[in-house]
Amino acid sequence: MRRILLLTLPLASAVFAANAPAPGGPTISIEEYDPKSTLRVPEHKLTRGKFPFIEVHSHHREVTPARLDQLIKEMDGLNMGLMINSPVGGGQGKWVAEAAATMKAHAPARFRVMTNMDQSKLDDPGYGARAAAQLETDIKAGAIGLKVWKGFGMTLQDSNGRIKVDDPRFDPVWAMAAKHKIPVLIHTADPWGLFQPMDKNNERWLELKLQARRNQSVQTDYTWEQLIEEQHRLFARHPQTTFIAAHLGWLGHDLGKLGAVLDRLPNVYAEIGAITSELGRQPRAAHRFFVKYQDRILFGKDRYDVEEYHVYFRLLETDDEYFDPIRKYHGIWKLYGLALPDDVLKKLYYKNALRIFPGLPSAGFPE
Ligand SMILES: [Zn+2]
């Protein structure tokens, strides 16, 4: 007993000393730890893209002439030539028709709109045909893409429980997208780490600490792997439908696997929103990936924030080293620029989007 006490004493005193100076200095939490780099290397803090770019993943519920004017000012500053706006959850029908009409009347060269899927009465045997008809109505009203939210596969339920990403009842919807050659921008799952136990080995530990509701490992009875496999089965079953996997299909940490998916499924593209920390920690592998798959990657950010675009430009265009990420909790490491060549940047920024989305205005985008 005495021996155990002696062994545990130093540990116990370390706990009690949390607020007292520890040997070598005060104890601080990982959230507080924010070392300022002493490294002196060239810096290129870009505030606009080298080429005009097409933003394929953005969300703005308010679509009024005044709001569009405000956005155009910010877009001009960033060199964003065109913004494709997705509804904020459940926008279809009237919202899409009004947004498309306002954009067309006010700034037809700068904005386009996508639609969402009707997800009402999912148990109804006529659901698929009805949802497909709604999509066709929205396309005729001006929608140039279908945005599928991450609730699809996670929170979306019918009377039997969770609906899988590749559930066949939606097949008429994917077929309708193929018929009109509009892409489906689909967000499935969340980063892998958010589905894993919150332990000392989890790279997303800090995010789980700060954003507890993102902890999928405690609130779901399905795995990340299941969701991603369902998504890939969906892609494979609809080769005529163009799919854009949002956030690199959450495979930014495994570009080899994403490359294999792109090799196997020529109808699949990927968009780079919210994964700058994944790319910026593997600048050489990511550079090779962007060169190899230069015809398959699109520029999208998802969360609209003018200043955060600056980090995207720096990451994609420069060879800067060891610079700050957008959000520390996406990874407690620094970023390194990919220094993509101009011809690859042009495809990423606008050429691929001009090819995939129907009817985009190409004026203003270089050859
Ligand atoms: Zn989104």
Largest β-sheet summary:
8 strands, parallel
Secondary-structure element order, N to C = HEEEHEHEHEEEHEHHHEHEHHEHH
What is the overall silhouette? globular
In order across it, which strands form the biggest sheet?
3-4-5-6-9-10-11-12
- Give the proportion of residues in helices: 25-40%
Task: Estimate what percentage of residues fall within beta strands.
Answer: 5-15%
What report would you give on this structure?
The protein contains 13 helices and 12 strands. It is an alpha/beta fold. The chain has one domain: Alpha-Beta Barrel (TIM Barrel). The strands form 3 sheets. An 8-stranded parallel sheet has the order 3-4-5-6-9-10-11-12. β5, α4 and β6 form a beta-alpha-beta unit. α4 runs parallel beside α5. It binds zinc ion.
What is the topology?
Layout: H1 2-16, E1 21-22, E2 25-26, E3 53-59, H2 65-78, E4 80-86, H3 94-106, E5 111-115, H4 127-141, E6 143-148, E7 157-158, E8 161-162, H5 171-179, E9 184-186, H6 205-210, H7 216-219, H8 224-237, E10 243-245, H9 255-264, E11 268-271, H10 276-280, H11 283-292, E12 297-298, H12 306-317, H13 342-356
Parallel strand pairs: 3-4, 4-5, 5-6, 6-9, 9-10, 10-11, 11-12
Antiparallel strand pairs: 1-2, 7-8
Helix pairs in contact: 4-5
This protein binds zinc ion (ZN).
